[in-house]
Amino acid sequence: MPNVNLPPLVPTAGGGATDDAVVSSGKADLDTAAPSQTDNIIPNRATTASSPSPLNGNAWLRAPYTAGGPDPRFDKIAIVVKTGKEVIDVRIPAMWHSWMKSVRHVAITGNANMDDVAGTGLPMVDVFHDAWTQEFGPDVPSPDRNLTGGGIGENGAGWKLDAHKTLPSLKFVRKRFPDADWYILADDDVYFFMDNIHHRLVSMDATVPHYIGSPHLFVGCGGVTEMGKGPAFGHGGPGIIISKAGLDKMLKVVDQCIPAYRDCFAGDVRVALCMRDAGMLVENPFSGLQHTVPPTPEDYQYPTDTCLRPMSFHHLNPAVMADLHKSTKLARANLPAASNATAWAGVTPKTHPDLFVRNGTQYVNVARTSPHFAPVRVADVYQAVVEGPYASTPDQGIDTLDSERDDSVYLVVMMGDDAGLSSCKQQCISDATQKCRSWSWNPESKRCLLSSAVPQAKNKPKSISGIVKGRYSCTDRTL
Protein backbone atom coordinates (compact mmCIF):
# COMPACT_ATOMS: atom_id res chain seq x y z
CA MET A 1 0.00 0.00 0.00
CA PRO A 2 1.42 3.43 -0.89
CA ASN A 3 2.37 5.69 1.98
CA VAL A 4 -0.75 7.82 2.05
CA ASN A 5 -3.44 8.20 4.68
CA LEU A 6 -6.72 6.60 3.60
CA PRO A 7 -10.03 7.16 5.40
CA PRO A 8 -11.59 4.17 7.20
CA LEU A 9 -14.06 1.94 5.43
CA VAL A 10 -15.88 0.37 8.39
CA PRO A 11 -19.20 2.11 9.08
CA THR A 12 -20.11 3.09 12.62
CA ALA A 13 -23.56 3.55 14.11
CA GLY A 14 -26.51 4.56 12.01
CA GLY A 15 -29.92 6.15 12.37
CA GLY A 16 -33.37 5.05 11.42
CA ALA A 17 -35.72 6.53 8.88
CA THR A 18 -39.03 8.27 9.23
CA ASP A 19 -42.11 6.20 8.57
CA ASP A 20 -43.18 7.85 5.33
CA ALA A 21 -39.86 6.96 3.71
CA VAL A 22 -39.89 3.29 4.71
CA VAL A 23 -41.67 0.43 2.98
CA SER A 24 -41.85 -3.06 4.49
CA SER A 25 -40.47 -5.55 1.99
CA GLY A 26 -43.05 -8.30 2.45
CA LYS A 27 -42.11 -9.70 -0.98
CA ALA A 28 -39.98 -12.81 -1.32
CA ASP A 29 -38.46 -11.66 -4.60
CA LEU A 30 -37.10 -8.52 -2.90
CA ASP A 31 -36.16 -10.15 0.38
CA THR A 32 -34.11 -13.20 -0.49
CA ALA A 33 -30.53 -11.96 -0.29
CA ALA A 34 -28.89 -11.50 3.09
CA PRO A 35 -28.18 -7.86 3.95
CA SER A 36 -24.58 -6.73 3.59
CA GLN A 37 -22.60 -5.05 6.35
CA THR A 38 -23.92 -1.61 5.43
CA ASP A 39 -27.52 -2.53 4.55
CA ASN A 40 -28.83 -1.67 8.02
CA ILE A 41 -27.01 1.65 8.27
CA ILE A 42 -29.44 4.14 6.83
CA PRO A 43 -29.45 7.77 7.99
CA ASN A 44 -32.70 9.45 8.94
CA ARG A 45 -34.02 12.68 7.49
CA ALA A 46 -33.46 15.05 10.41
CA THR A 47 -30.72 17.64 10.14
CA THR A 48 -28.13 18.69 12.66
CA ALA A 49 -25.55 21.42 12.89
CA SER A 50 -23.05 19.04 14.48
CA SER A 51 -22.85 16.56 11.60
CA PRO A 52 -19.26 15.36 11.02
CA SER A 53 -17.48 16.14 7.79
CA PRO A 54 -18.52 14.00 4.79
CA LEU A 55 -14.83 13.69 3.93
CA ASN A 56 -14.03 11.15 6.64
CA GLY A 57 -15.04 7.90 4.99
CA ASN A 58 -18.33 6.73 6.51
CA ALA A 59 -18.14 9.00 9.55
CA TRP A 60 -21.17 10.96 8.37
CA LEU A 61 -23.35 7.96 9.19
CA ARG A 62 -22.89 8.69 12.87
CA ALA A 63 -25.18 11.67 12.35
CA PRO A 64 -28.55 12.10 10.63
CA TYR A 65 -28.69 12.54 6.88
CA THR A 66 -27.48 15.96 5.72
CA ALA A 67 -26.95 17.69 2.41
CA GLY A 68 -23.20 17.28 2.86
CA GLY A 69 -23.29 13.50 2.94
CA PRO A 70 -23.14 11.04 0.05
CA ASP A 71 -26.22 9.21 -1.15
CA PRO A 72 -26.35 5.64 0.24
CA ARG A 73 -28.08 4.45 -2.93
CA PHE A 74 -24.70 4.75 -4.66
CA ASP A 75 -22.76 2.76 -2.05
CA LYS A 76 -22.36 -0.24 -4.34
CA ILE A 77 -20.57 1.91 -6.93
CA ALA A 78 -16.85 2.70 -6.58
CA ILE A 79 -15.17 5.28 -8.79
CA VAL A 80 -11.48 5.79 -9.43
CA VAL A 81 -10.43 9.10 -11.00
CA LYS A 82 -7.05 9.31 -12.77
CA THR A 83 -5.31 12.65 -12.59
CA GLY A 84 -1.88 14.24 -12.15
CA LYS A 85 -0.30 16.52 -9.58
CA GLU A 86 0.16 19.27 -12.19
CA VAL A 87 -3.56 19.72 -12.87
CA ILE A 88 -5.16 18.30 -9.75
CA ASP A 89 -5.79 21.66 -8.06
CA VAL A 90 -7.89 22.80 -11.02
CA ARG A 91 -9.74 19.68 -12.06
CA ILE A 92 -10.59 17.80 -8.88
CA PRO A 93 -12.32 20.76 -7.13
CA ALA A 94 -14.63 21.13 -10.13
CA MET A 95 -15.66 17.49 -9.74
CA TRP A 96 -15.84 17.66 -5.96
CA HIS A 97 -18.17 20.64 -5.96
CA SER A 98 -20.50 19.01 -8.50
CA TRP A 99 -21.16 15.27 -8.74
CA MET A 100 -18.44 13.74 -6.57
CA LYS A 101 -19.92 14.63 -3.16
CA SER A 102 -22.84 12.29 -3.78
CA VAL A 103 -20.58 9.21 -3.96
CA ARG A 104 -19.06 7.64 -0.86
CA HIS A 105 -16.54 5.37 -2.55
CA VAL A 106 -14.20 7.56 -4.60
CA ALA A 107 -10.47 7.02 -5.09
CA ILE A 108 -8.01 9.35 -6.81
CA THR A 109 -4.89 7.98 -8.47
CA GLY A 110 -2.03 9.80 -10.12
CA ASN A 111 1.71 10.38 -10.15
CA ALA A 112 2.25 11.42 -6.52
CA ASN A 113 1.02 10.64 -3.02
CA MET A 114 -1.08 13.37 -1.40
CA ASP A 115 -3.05 13.16 1.84
CA ASP A 116 -5.50 15.94 0.91
CA VAL A 117 -6.30 16.82 -2.68
CA ALA A 118 -7.18 20.50 -3.07
CA GLY A 119 -8.90 20.71 0.29
CA THR A 120 -11.37 17.90 -0.41
CA GLY A 121 -9.95 15.60 2.26
CA LEU A 122 -9.52 12.91 -0.39
CA PRO A 123 -6.05 11.42 -0.86
CA MET A 124 -4.28 10.80 -4.16
CA VAL A 125 -2.34 7.56 -4.48
CA ASP A 126 0.69 7.29 -6.76
CA VAL A 127 0.13 4.32 -9.07
CA PHE A 128 2.32 5.59 -11.91
CA HIS A 129 5.83 5.00 -10.62
CA ASP A 130 5.26 1.42 -9.44
CA ALA A 131 3.60 0.64 -12.77
CA TRP A 132 6.56 2.10 -14.65
CA THR A 133 8.93 -0.14 -12.70
CA GLN A 134 6.71 -3.15 -13.37
CA GLU A 135 6.72 -2.34 -17.09
CA PHE A 136 10.34 -1.37 -17.70
CA GLY A 137 12.25 -2.60 -14.67
CA PRO A 138 13.99 -0.74 -11.83
CA ASP A 139 16.91 0.43 -13.97
CA VAL A 140 14.78 2.55 -16.35
CA PRO A 141 13.97 5.91 -14.73
CA SER A 142 10.44 7.20 -15.15
CA PRO A 143 10.05 10.30 -17.35
CA ASP A 144 10.25 13.58 -15.48
CA ARG A 145 7.30 15.17 -17.26
CA ASN A 146 3.95 16.58 -16.36
CA LEU A 147 1.30 13.89 -16.09
CA THR A 148 -2.06 15.39 -16.92
CA GLY A 149 -5.29 13.62 -16.20
CA GLY A 150 -6.08 13.08 -19.86
CA GLY A 151 -8.15 15.06 -22.31
CA ILE A 152 -5.62 17.80 -23.08
CA GLY A 153 -4.47 16.29 -26.34
CA GLU A 154 -3.27 13.03 -27.77
CA ASN A 155 0.04 14.59 -28.83
CA GLY A 156 0.94 15.73 -25.33
CA ALA A 157 3.43 13.87 -23.18
CA GLY A 158 1.03 13.93 -20.24
CA TRP A 159 -1.75 12.21 -22.17
CA LYS A 160 0.62 9.49 -23.36
CA LEU A 161 2.10 8.85 -19.93
CA ASP A 162 -1.37 8.78 -18.39
CA ALA A 163 -1.86 5.38 -20.03
CA HIS A 164 0.50 3.80 -17.50
CA LYS A 165 -1.93 4.60 -14.67
CA THR A 166 -5.01 2.90 -16.09
CA LEU A 167 -4.62 -0.79 -15.28
CA PRO A 168 -2.95 -0.08 -11.90
CA SER A 169 -5.86 2.21 -11.02
CA LEU A 170 -8.30 -0.65 -11.55
CA LYS A 171 -6.16 -2.91 -9.34
CA PHE A 172 -6.14 -0.26 -6.64
CA VAL A 173 -9.86 0.56 -6.61
CA ARG A 174 -10.85 -3.12 -6.35
CA LYS A 175 -8.61 -3.51 -3.32
CA ARG A 176 -9.64 -0.19 -1.81
CA PHE A 177 -13.39 -0.85 -2.06
CA PRO A 178 -13.82 -4.64 -2.01
CA ASP A 179 -17.55 -4.57 -1.23
CA ALA A 180 -18.61 -2.58 -4.31
CA ASP A 181 -20.65 -4.22 -7.07
CA TRP A 182 -19.64 -1.83 -9.85
CA TYR A 183 -16.36 -0.04 -10.59
CA ILE A 184 -16.03 3.02 -12.80
CA LEU A 185 -12.73 4.21 -14.26
CA ALA A 186 -12.83 7.94 -14.92
CA ASP A 187 -10.77 10.80 -16.31
CA ASP A 188 -10.56 14.01 -14.31
CA ASP A 189 -12.61 16.05 -16.79
CA VAL A 190 -15.81 14.01 -16.80
CA TYR A 191 -19.20 14.68 -15.24
CA PHE A 192 -21.23 11.72 -14.00
CA PHE A 193 -25.01 11.85 -13.56
CA MET A 194 -24.99 9.42 -10.66
CA ASP A 195 -28.76 8.98 -10.48
CA ASN A 196 -28.88 8.05 -14.15
CA ILE A 197 -25.94 5.66 -13.81
CA HIS A 198 -27.49 4.01 -10.76
CA HIS A 199 -30.85 3.87 -12.52
CA ARG A 200 -29.26 1.74 -15.26
CA LEU A 201 -27.01 -0.45 -13.12
CA VAL A 202 -29.54 -1.36 -10.44
CA SER A 203 -31.27 -3.82 -12.78
CA MET A 204 -28.01 -5.50 -13.88
CA ASP A 205 -26.27 -8.41 -12.20
CA ALA A 206 -22.79 -7.52 -10.95
CA THR A 207 -21.97 -11.20 -10.37
CA VAL A 208 -21.93 -11.58 -14.16
CA PRO A 209 -18.77 -10.29 -15.92
CA HIS A 210 -19.54 -6.95 -17.60
CA TYR A 211 -17.14 -4.55 -19.32
CA ILE A 212 -19.17 -1.54 -20.45
CA GLY A 213 -18.22 1.55 -22.40
CA SER A 214 -18.65 3.64 -25.53
CA PRO A 215 -17.02 1.36 -28.15
CA HIS A 216 -14.24 2.61 -30.44
CA LEU A 217 -11.74 0.92 -32.73
CA PHE A 218 -7.97 1.20 -32.66
CA VAL A 219 -4.86 0.05 -34.46
CA GLY A 220 -1.18 0.07 -33.61
CA CYS A 221 -0.70 -1.97 -30.45
CA GLY A 222 -1.43 -5.37 -28.95
CA GLY A 223 -0.79 -7.00 -32.30
CA VAL A 224 -3.66 -5.13 -33.97
CA THR A 225 -2.38 -3.98 -37.37
CA GLU A 226 -5.68 -3.37 -39.15
CA MET A 227 -8.64 -1.29 -37.98
CA GLY A 228 -11.46 -3.56 -36.87
CA LYS A 229 -9.30 -6.65 -36.50
CA GLY A 230 -8.79 -6.16 -32.78
CA PRO A 231 -11.27 -5.79 -29.92
CA ALA A 232 -13.19 -2.55 -29.63
CA PHE A 233 -12.24 -0.54 -26.56
CA GLY A 234 -14.55 1.23 -24.15
CA HIS A 235 -13.64 4.91 -24.34
CA GLY A 236 -12.18 6.00 -21.01
CA GLY A 237 -13.32 9.61 -21.32
CA PRO A 238 -17.01 9.18 -20.42
CA GLY A 239 -16.18 6.33 -18.03
CA ILE A 240 -15.55 2.59 -18.22
CA ILE A 241 -17.99 0.57 -16.10
CA ILE A 242 -16.98 -2.90 -14.92
CA SER A 243 -18.91 -5.32 -12.73
CA LYS A 244 -17.11 -6.87 -9.79
CA ALA A 245 -17.16 -10.23 -11.56
CA GLY A 246 -15.70 -8.66 -14.69
CA LEU A 247 -12.96 -6.86 -12.81
CA ASP A 248 -12.05 -9.96 -10.82
CA LYS A 249 -11.76 -11.88 -14.08
CA MET A 250 -9.44 -9.25 -15.56
CA LEU A 251 -7.33 -9.01 -12.40
CA LYS A 252 -6.33 -12.64 -12.82
CA VAL A 253 -4.24 -11.62 -15.84
CA VAL A 254 -3.57 -7.93 -15.19
CA ASP A 255 -0.02 -8.42 -13.94
CA GLN A 256 0.82 -9.99 -17.29
CA CYS A 257 -1.04 -7.24 -19.17
CA ILE A 258 0.80 -4.33 -17.54
CA PRO A 259 4.24 -5.15 -19.00
CA ALA A 260 2.82 -6.77 -22.14
CA TYR A 261 1.01 -3.62 -23.27
CA ARG A 262 3.45 -1.04 -21.88
CA ASP A 263 3.94 0.52 -25.32
CA CYS A 264 0.25 0.85 -26.11
CA PHE A 265 -0.58 4.51 -26.61
CA ALA A 266 -3.84 4.72 -24.61
CA GLY A 267 -4.88 3.38 -21.25
CA ASP A 268 -8.41 2.49 -22.32
CA VAL A 269 -6.98 0.44 -25.18
CA ARG A 270 -4.80 -1.41 -22.66
CA VAL A 271 -7.95 -2.21 -20.68
CA ALA A 272 -9.63 -3.63 -23.80
CA LEU A 273 -6.60 -5.80 -24.60
CA CYS A 274 -6.42 -7.09 -21.04
CA MET A 275 -10.15 -7.77 -21.04
CA ARG A 276 -9.68 -9.68 -24.29
CA ASP A 277 -6.97 -11.75 -22.64
CA ALA A 278 -9.39 -12.45 -19.79
CA GLY A 279 -12.09 -13.53 -22.26
CA MET A 280 -14.28 -10.42 -22.32
CA LEU A 281 -15.27 -7.86 -24.95
CA VAL A 282 -16.77 -4.42 -24.46
CA GLU A 283 -20.55 -4.12 -24.21
CA ASN A 284 -22.58 -1.08 -25.18
CA PRO A 285 -25.96 -1.34 -23.43
CA PHE A 286 -26.02 2.42 -22.84
CA SER A 287 -25.62 3.57 -26.42
CA GLY A 288 -25.99 7.32 -26.79
CA LEU A 289 -25.81 7.97 -23.04
CA GLN A 290 -22.03 8.05 -22.46
CA HIS A 291 -20.67 11.07 -24.31
CA THR A 292 -17.06 11.62 -25.34
CA VAL A 293 -17.66 15.33 -25.99
CA PRO A 294 -18.92 18.24 -23.87
CA PRO A 295 -22.59 19.31 -24.15
CA THR A 296 -21.72 22.67 -25.69
CA PRO A 297 -23.64 23.48 -28.91
CA GLU A 298 -20.41 23.53 -30.94
CA ASP A 299 -19.52 19.97 -29.92
CA TYR A 300 -22.68 18.01 -29.14
CA GLN A 301 -25.72 17.11 -31.18
CA TYR A 302 -28.74 17.31 -28.93
CA PRO A 303 -31.07 14.43 -29.85
CA THR A 304 -34.69 14.69 -30.90
CA ASP A 305 -35.70 12.76 -27.77
CA THR A 306 -35.41 15.47 -25.12
CA CYS A 307 -36.22 13.11 -22.24
CA LEU A 308 -33.20 10.81 -22.55
CA ARG A 309 -31.25 10.43 -19.31
CA PRO A 310 -27.53 10.95 -20.08
CA MET A 311 -24.92 9.19 -17.96
CA SER A 312 -21.80 11.27 -18.59
CA PHE A 313 -20.05 13.98 -20.60
CA HIS A 314 -16.32 14.25 -21.21
CA HIS A 315 -13.76 16.98 -22.03
CA LEU A 316 -15.20 19.50 -19.59
CA ASN A 317 -13.38 22.53 -18.33
CA PRO A 318 -14.37 23.71 -14.82
CA ALA A 319 -16.69 26.43 -16.17
CA VAL A 320 -18.70 24.00 -18.34
CA MET A 321 -18.78 21.48 -15.49
CA ALA A 322 -20.28 24.13 -13.22
CA ASP A 323 -22.92 24.96 -15.84
CA LEU A 324 -23.64 21.28 -16.34
CA HIS A 325 -24.15 20.76 -12.62
CA LYS A 326 -27.01 23.28 -12.77
CA SER A 327 -28.95 20.66 -14.72
CA THR A 328 -29.39 18.68 -11.50
CA LYS A 329 -31.21 21.64 -9.94
CA LEU A 330 -33.45 21.90 -12.99
CA ALA A 331 -34.24 18.19 -12.75
CA ARG A 332 -35.02 18.46 -9.05
CA ALA A 333 -37.36 21.36 -9.70
CA ASN A 334 -39.55 18.97 -11.70
CA LEU A 335 -39.79 16.37 -8.92
CA PRO A 336 -42.81 16.05 -6.63
CA ALA A 337 -42.21 17.37 -3.14
CA ALA A 338 -41.20 14.80 -0.52
CA SER A 339 -44.33 15.76 1.42
CA ASN A 340 -46.60 15.00 -1.56
CA ALA A 341 -47.89 11.61 -0.42
CA THR A 342 -50.16 11.24 -3.45
CA ALA A 343 -47.34 11.64 -5.96
CA TRP A 344 -45.18 9.08 -4.16
CA ALA A 345 -47.96 6.61 -3.38
CA GLY A 346 -47.22 4.28 -6.30
CA VAL A 347 -43.46 4.27 -5.79
CA THR A 348 -42.37 0.91 -4.38
CA PRO A 349 -39.12 -1.08 -4.23
CA LYS A 350 -40.42 -3.26 -7.02
CA THR A 351 -41.52 -0.47 -9.38
CA HIS A 352 -38.59 1.86 -8.61
CA PRO A 353 -35.70 -0.16 -7.14
CA ASP A 354 -33.23 2.63 -7.88
CA LEU A 355 -34.95 4.90 -5.35
CA PHE A 356 -34.61 2.56 -2.37
CA VAL A 357 -31.92 1.17 -0.10
CA ARG A 358 -32.40 -1.97 1.92
CA ASN A 359 -32.52 -1.57 5.70
CA GLY A 360 -32.67 -5.03 7.20
CA THR A 361 -36.09 -6.37 6.19
CA GLN A 362 -37.31 -2.98 5.05
CA TYR A 363 -36.60 -0.74 2.09
CA VAL A 364 -35.97 2.94 2.66
CA ASN A 365 -37.00 5.44 0.00
CA VAL A 366 -33.78 7.44 0.20
CA ALA A 367 -34.41 9.28 -3.07
CA ARG A 368 -37.54 10.94 -1.71
CA THR A 369 -35.48 13.05 0.69
CA SER A 370 -32.00 12.89 -0.81
CA PRO A 371 -30.52 16.21 -1.96
CA HIS A 372 -28.65 14.23 -4.60
CA PHE A 373 -31.73 12.73 -6.26
CA ALA A 374 -31.70 14.23 -9.75
CA PRO A 375 -33.02 12.19 -12.71
CA VAL A 376 -31.53 14.58 -15.26
CA ARG A 377 -32.88 14.67 -18.81
CA VAL A 378 -30.92 15.88 -21.79
CA ALA A 379 -33.34 18.82 -21.92
CA ASP A 380 -32.08 19.86 -18.47
CA VAL A 381 -28.52 19.73 -19.78
CA TYR A 382 -29.50 21.88 -22.74
CA GLN A 383 -31.24 24.47 -20.61
CA ALA A 384 -28.27 24.67 -18.22
CA VAL A 385 -25.45 24.73 -20.75
CA VAL A 386 -26.94 26.20 -23.94
CA GLU A 387 -29.75 28.51 -22.93
CA GLY A 388 -28.46 29.34 -19.46
CA PRO A 389 -25.71 31.74 -20.58
CA TYR A 390 -28.27 33.59 -22.71
CA ALA A 391 -30.98 33.78 -20.06
CA SER A 392 -30.92 37.57 -19.90
CA THR A 393 -31.03 38.24 -23.64
CA PRO A 394 -34.34 39.64 -24.92
CA ASP A 395 -34.31 38.02 -28.38
CA GLN A 396 -35.82 34.66 -29.15
CA GLY A 397 -32.81 32.99 -30.65
CA ILE A 398 -29.19 32.04 -30.20
CA ASP A 399 -27.42 32.69 -33.51
CA THR A 400 -24.03 31.36 -34.64
CA LEU A 401 -22.08 32.78 -37.59
CA ASP A 402 -20.31 30.58 -40.15
CA SER A 403 -22.17 27.49 -39.01
CA GLU A 404 -24.79 25.08 -40.24
CA ARG A 405 -27.08 22.64 -38.43
CA ASP A 406 -28.01 20.15 -41.13
CA ASP A 407 -29.13 17.12 -39.06
CA SER A 408 -32.72 16.20 -38.16
CA VAL A 409 -33.95 18.54 -40.90
CA TYR A 410 -37.67 18.07 -41.48
CA LEU A 411 -38.20 20.90 -43.96
CA VAL A 412 -36.07 22.68 -46.57
CA VAL A 413 -37.47 26.03 -47.69
CA MET A 414 -36.10 27.66 -50.85
CA MET A 415 -36.26 31.37 -50.27
CA GLY A 416 -36.64 34.07 -52.89
CA ASP A 417 -33.92 36.44 -54.04
CA ASP A 418 -35.12 39.15 -51.70
CA ALA A 419 -35.24 36.87 -48.65
CA GLY A 420 -32.51 36.90 -46.05
CA LEU A 421 -31.45 35.68 -42.65
CA SER A 422 -34.43 37.16 -40.83
CA SER A 423 -36.89 35.42 -43.16
CA CYS A 424 -35.37 32.00 -42.50
CA LYS A 425 -35.23 32.61 -38.78
CA GLN A 426 -38.85 33.71 -38.78
CA GLN A 427 -39.87 30.52 -40.61
CA CYS A 428 -38.65 28.56 -37.60
CA ILE A 429 -40.03 30.89 -34.95
CA SER A 430 -43.44 31.06 -36.63
CA ASP A 431 -43.90 27.30 -36.83
CA ALA A 432 -47.35 26.88 -35.31
CA THR A 433 -46.55 23.36 -34.06
CA GLN A 434 -43.28 24.58 -32.49
CA LYS A 435 -41.62 21.54 -34.02
CA CYS A 436 -38.81 23.74 -35.28
CA ARG A 437 -36.03 24.06 -32.72
CA SER A 438 -33.14 25.22 -34.88
CA TRP A 439 -32.53 26.60 -38.34
CA SER A 440 -29.74 27.23 -40.86
CA TRP A 441 -29.52 29.85 -43.60
CA ASN A 442 -27.21 29.72 -46.60
CA PRO A 443 -27.25 33.05 -48.48
CA GLU A 444 -25.65 31.55 -51.60
CA SER A 445 -28.00 28.61 -52.10
CA LYS A 446 -30.97 30.48 -50.57
CA ARG A 447 -31.76 27.32 -48.61
CA CYS A 448 -33.41 27.55 -45.22
CA LEU A 449 -33.11 24.34 -43.18
CA LEU A 450 -35.58 23.74 -40.36
CA SER A 451 -34.61 21.11 -37.78
CA SER A 452 -36.62 19.37 -35.08
CA ALA A 453 -33.50 18.88 -32.93
CA VAL A 454 -30.55 21.02 -31.86
CA PRO A 455 -27.77 19.54 -34.00
CA GLN A 456 -24.10 20.31 -33.57
CA ALA A 457 -23.12 23.60 -35.19
CA LYS A 458 -20.79 22.54 -38.01
CA ASN A 459 -18.34 24.94 -39.56
CA LYS A 460 -19.83 26.40 -42.75
CA PRO A 461 -18.41 29.72 -44.04
CA LYS A 462 -21.02 32.39 -44.82
CA SER A 463 -23.86 30.29 -43.41
CA ILE A 464 -25.69 31.23 -40.24
CA SER A 465 -27.57 28.92 -37.88
CA GLY A 466 -29.63 29.51 -34.80
CA ILE A 467 -31.64 27.99 -31.98
CA VAL A 468 -35.12 29.04 -30.92
CA LYS A 469 -35.12 29.38 -27.16
CA GLY A 470 -37.66 27.62 -24.98
CA ARG A 471 -38.56 24.78 -27.35
CA TYR A 472 -36.13 22.08 -26.24
CA SER A 473 -37.82 20.72 -23.14
CA CYS A 474 -38.98 17.44 -21.65
CA THR A 475 -42.62 17.22 -20.66
CA ASP A 476 -42.85 13.44 -20.18
CA ARG A 477 -41.06 13.00 -16.85
CA THR A 478 -41.49 10.05 -14.54
CA LEU A 479 -39.75 9.09 -11.34
Question: What would your notes on this structure say?
Answer:
Helices cover 23% and strands 17% of the residues. The protein has helices spanning 88-96, 128-136, 157-162, 166-176, 194-201, 244-251, 254-260, 267-277, 318-333, 341-344, 378-387, 421-429; strands at 22-24, 77-82, 105-110, 124-126, 182-186, 191-192, 211-212, 215-216, 233-234, 240-243, 290-291, 312-313, 356-359, 362-365, 397-404, 409-414, 438-442, 447-451, 458-468. Strand 13 and strand 14 (362-365) form a beta hairpin. The protein is globular and about 75 Å long.
Summarize the structure.
This protein has 479 residues and is α+β, with helices and mostly antiparallel strands. Helix content is 23%, strand content 17%.
- Which consecutive residue ranges, at least 5 long each, have pLDDT under 50? 8-67, 145-153
Q: Give the number of DSSP strands.
A: 19
User: Quick check: average pLDDT?
Assistant: 82
Sheet of most strands: 6 strands, mixed
- DSSP strand content: 15-25%
Helix content: 10-25%
Q: What would you call the structural class?
A: alpha+beta
**Radius of gyration from CA coordinates:** 24 Å
In spatial order, strands of the major sheet run 4-3-2-5-10-7
Instruction: Give the overall shape, derived from the CA principal axes.
Output: globular
Amino-to-carboxy terminus distance:
42 Å
Number of helices: 12
